[in-house]
Structure prediction request, 332 residues.
Amino acid sequence: MGEPNKTALRRILEIDHLIRDGGNPSSTELAAHFEVTARTIYRDLAYLRDQLNAPLAWHRQSDTIGGYYYTDPSYALPANFIRRQEMTGLLLAGKLVEVAKGQPRGAAFFTLVQRLRKLLSEDDLLIIDNEVSAFDYVARRTRFTSSSSVELAGHALRNRKQITGSLYIPEQERWERFSFETYNLVNLNGAWYLLGRLIEKDERRAVPLNRVRGLKETEESYSVPKDFTLSEALDDAFGFNLSGEPYRVRLRFRGQAAQLVAEREWHASQRLLFEPDGRLTLTLQTTHLEELSRWVIGFGGEVEVLGPEVLRKICRRRLTDFIATNPALAPQ
Prediction:
């Protein structure tokens, strides 16, 4: 008997699951469940019994009623049903799940991994663990978001239901009630964000889920606008690009800062121009001047803000606040 195709493999996996759950499915029930012929089911059962060594038996309840079961309840699909490379990829995915805490179905994922590991030989596991140990993933530390909040937000998004809760406003050090229509739920650098419309202000916003408490799903329905795309929302390295007219920003870098800025793409609209004296002019368009100002100030005297004027004012305000908080650092 030849190897089954992908569709047949999926059926065999589910047939194994149905039998393992003690449902004693019959060939007629299985054919109806998968919408295939009884002959196809008999072929799947034969592969399960003859090629995968399943202890398959028929339980007769009457002359016309019966179903399949395993004579050995501890039976597991053989190791060669899972390729070593596939298990390696799964374990690497597990490392990503560990880095980004609060993943939905995270516990179920690791339970699956442990079950699959039991299907492999000790020799295969040794090779796999050695391959996986060569790779690591690191994300910035972020405030923990419970998986229950992520699950609730995801459920509301799938059902297109508005959510309500309290959002912490750091600048004002207070909590504020809000209602939200979620267009997308995204994990960026280890932190979960709700992307959508803040109903109270009728504005598109990115809401950090770790600043939300008392999240609830309502009965109010909505539709995701056709002009919303996640790729465009993620275009801006300094924040989510959801609304507002972008500013044309021009920054001139020198010294080591010029080399650092040239090493990566900060924005889809950026343009880099090296001058003969080694200085670098960066031009881009962004709506997030507050976030951009923090980045700019971090380069100290190696950056000059050429425009817009509003960005200069924001940087000046931040530097003034910094000196007011740290008077000992004020120039003498």
About this structure: The chain has eleven helices and eleven strands.
